[in-house]
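Supplementary Data S3. Sequence and structure tokens for construct A.
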Amino acid sequence: NHVNSICSMWGNFHFKTFDGDVYQFPGTCEYNLVSDCQSLIRQFSVHVKRTEHSTGPNISRVSITINDIGVELTEKQVVVNGEKVTLPVHIAGILVEENTIYTRLYSKMGITVKWNKEDAVMVELDSKYSNRTCGLCGDFNGVPVYSEFIESGWKVGYAEFGNMHRVPNPTHACKDPSETDDEQNVENKCEKFQADCADLLKDEKWSSCSRVLNREPYIKACTNDICLRQPEDEDTNTSALCATLSEYSRQCSHAGGTPPSWRTANFCAVTCPYNMVHSESGSPCMDTCSHKDTNTLCEEHNIDGCFCPPGTVFDDISNTGCIPAEKCQCKHDRIYSTGEILRKDEEECICAEGNWICTSIPGPGLCTVEEGSHFTTFDGKEFTFHGDCKYVLSKVRDCKESRFIILGQIVPCFTHQTDTCLKSVVVLFNNDMKNALIIKADGTVQHNADVTLPYMTGEGEEALYLFSVF
């Protein structure tokens, strides 16, 4: 349960600070949501830009800076240090990834930013940043109200507090929300709607959430959503209430609770791609054909989103949606179906339900003699031997199809008597001592007489070729 290290913004201009204050600030400029304000050089910052849409305010851009890495998230793309990237991307201890609903940035510095690509952003910080932050998320000192909305004994209004954290941007013209509105009068006017929201969120089906999460901030947000709605704009009204219920459900799941399936086909419905199904609480680590044990190894908090039905995995090979694991294909140079075989130099692999099952294929052995004294066996053993005789390099006697003996003549070198040289190689086919094939150090070849390369034996089975080195 890391609720006390989370700041979030959602829906109809709602904000919840790290210290638990919930307020509304209807700004549509670019703002500092949270940044490290105690260091001479800021280690990180998260800026957000909100815009108005027909269904209510949305977040059009989230800009994150961590040390010298800048990441800009928009609905259609992700840009890192000015260059468009394809997700997932890893850079300097930062991971940016996405699923069907969220784009998520995680930094090893203890910073997580999650955006639903619409109206909601959540920032989670490591406790080491306590009492070190500034921005719309507050100072993270564990004390509500003070420092944010009461400073030096003076009350600071929500609009005044929000406007203080506007990020100057000469390329974007926007107007600060008025700081003269009577915010207390608005709260008093909306109080009559509080009972409806309390009945909604105190319902028994939300009991798991009330045990792990303070519901009062969300009752307050719900009250404002109902109070400030316009009768003629039903889409906006529903969207605002859905956003607050979604936020409560999202934070409940993150805190370890089990939110109910509160959505219906006609109320706050979510459409999922492929044949995926929506759930208020599921593992963000989705099993796929390529990685079937991802969920088992997952250490992340549950989230809301679109998931594969039980008994299926996501087909990340052909991108056909959720399929039974036994129908998974394999991929190498192309896509292979179950039962298809891939043959490589030293092994043969068969595709079986998305997994490669490989067996080794016996290949030709290699034995070498270098500089007349350095030997490497067929099994890779290396050794040095100096001799003055003919030695058996290799032979096969008990094979009916191919019998041979290969001899090497090693003698002291003419120029360096302490070294040995390979003077000749003798090959006996079918153990025929009278029909030896002799390869000499000067490059000449004899088979009962000198022969010219390339050369093929009379039986047409053995051939010799001349190469630049051998």
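Construct B, processed identically:
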Amino acid sequence: MSDTTEAGLNEEWVRPRPGRTGYRNDLLLALALAIGTTISLVLFRATGTFSDTPGWQSTLWIVAVTMPLALRRRWPEAVAVVSSLAFAAAYVFETGEFLFSQICLFVAIYSVGAWGRNRKVATIVRAVIVSGMLAWVFWQLVYYSAVQDYLPELPREGSLSPYLAYGLINIITNLLYFGGAWFFGDSAYRSARAKALLEQRTVELAAERERTKQQAVALERLRIARELHDVVAHHVSVMGVQAGAARRVLERDPAQASRSLSAIEQNARSAVDELHLLLGTLRSEQPEPGAAPAHQSSSTRGIEQLPELVADAEAAGLPVTLSVIGEARGVPGGVSLSLFRVAQEALTNARKHGGGGARADLRVRYLAEAVELEVSDTGVGASARGGAARATNSASGSGLGHIGMRERVAAVGGRIEIGPRARGGYLVRAQFPIAPALVSTSPINGEPASADND
């Protein structure tokens, strides 16, 4: 997840309400605190504290200070206000007790921080409650400092009198009390938000893994389809041409028919061998250390096999001239395979669409930082077939073969041009980047220059 998404979640996230189990637990908590408050109240009354308060008043106070906590996660702000007023009523109306009522107030203020859906409102409500309580404590300490009958055992004289120390202890205790409720409430909210963020990240990562998996499957299917097209289309096309030739000359020229059948057999064996190699590569789950990637090693074909490709094309009835321009040098396996497959597809198309009497030229040029393949033919394809399908589809590269050529060239960082020539025929020109050739110069003493020389 990006930082922007995370920041957006931090600003907009609202803690979801608990389920029925959460509300049931809150009700049980409120009942438990009500029972504890009742027992504590009885004990306080036994000590003489607020012992004159009517029973019904004490009962109403117990309900007011404890039972709203059953809704502390649904309406935390309202519960905190009610609990605070009930807590103050214990002093104003001289009823209640001072143990469980403080626990109830702590839980109420904590719940505002932990479950408040509007953070600004939660902050304001807590600030008002805490400020009011601290102001009340401070006012009581100041007021009773002048009342000598209140805690007479604590003298008021001196810079740090016992009464002043008592007052400071009360203030520090209340600061820790309210500060703890505030801090732990906010911590619970942050923890819930972090958990939600982690869950969202987990969901997004799972979705991303699924998308990656689907993309990998799609790319693998595309690679398999491209390999099958390149392997099968060429050989089957040659076999179809040779079979037709054998059928036409079978009676009048058995020797030629036999040569055509031999070519069919050779192409069939070649196709089967390449298919076996392709399937073996696809079945290999654990490639050997140092082995080339599957898209580079799925065929033994490469630039060295171009003469064989030319021979197959000529045997199928398409005259081809092979030219190598420049000094030949090593070509990476992936580039070599792609160059061979592009040449194979171009010659197959020339044979299928070029028409009778078509010729093809296959040129390989070694440039400074690239190797260029050019396959042109003199066919009249579209007009000879009585339509413009070839010219239209080929120019845009919409055929499966042309798509495969473009993908192969793009996969190794090259570029390709496909389209009809102005003077007739068709042209496929692809350029593949390779390592630049080292230019050797001879120094004055006649020794060959080293690549390390300056």
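The first strand starts at residue 320 and ends at 325. Confidence is low (pLDDT under 50) at residues 1-5, 285-298, 382-398, 438-454.
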